[in-house]
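Q&A log
Question type: sequence-to-structure
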Amino acid sequence: MKMNDAHHGPDPRTDLRPLNAALREAVDFIHAEGWDRPPTLFALVPAHLVQDTLAAGGQEADLDASDHPLTLVVQDELPEHILPGSDELGDYIASAQWPPLVIGAVLAQEILFTNSAPGADPTPRPARFFSGIIDGGPERTLVQLRPTEEELDADPFAQDRITLLGGENLAPGVIAALRSSFED
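Response status: OK
Response body:
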């Protein structure tokens, strides 16, 4: 069966929705762990393959491949000495080698972000970047700004709110490193 069969949902190589859903799942996972965390790398595997593998082992999978066609697989922690936003992190990611079932990857990392959008505050702020790609398909980077002390004082639930920003060319180096990890 092909990935775009109704049973498996949209084809992640031609449709941005599966990558968006995977990025949102990564955001929720990382947000639950709190701030001041090291970078996290996720492999993206077609959900129906995970279901089939679990079923073959006699386990049930609580996955709906039509709603979430990609499953996030957290990779072992990255070496502690590698800093977010560093060239060393880019080199490490670019050198990753994926098994054939992995069709994409997401990197979550905390960096200082300067919003250059018109009318935005140009002061660098701590933020999380979520960059994801599908091998031979779409790419996207989302930004989650860390709430400021003023925002936390004004709204006790500000820490729990997730607001994501997007745009063009937010993390071209990270996207290039993720893409090169799928090259032979």
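Response note: Residues 1-7 have pLDDT under 50 and may be disordered.
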